[in-house]
Specification:
The chain is α/β, with parallel strands linked by helices. Helix content is 49%, strand content 14%. The longest helix is centred in the last third of the chain and has 26 residues, at 93-118.
Length: 119
Amino acid sequence: MFQRVGYETTCVVTSDEAQEQLRVGAFDLLLLDVFVESHNTLDDLQGYRDLAPHVPVAIMTAGQLDNPDASAESLNKARRARVNFLLPKPFYFDDVKQICGDVDTYWSHIDASKQAVAS
């Protein structure tokens, strides 16, 4: 869905891979799935922010089969951690399109403020 909006995507399956990508590349948005195998990526959120301090974060989750409250708990934890976007599954193309528009606006304001400071 993000590619359909025009974003180039990089997919990783572990926290270590994600952190390595953040060390070597620049990203406009960090999209994290909360539950990857038995690990909760929200536990690593500060590490991601340290590696990409100004990059907006989107959190997506569907929960866990053995814990019906896990999805709500995770989304609330993400909200309290001040992530930029919440994407409860299933989400739709319009949701992704809206987030990408918000991210584009965010970066255009960042770029404009850099130009104003540089002037």
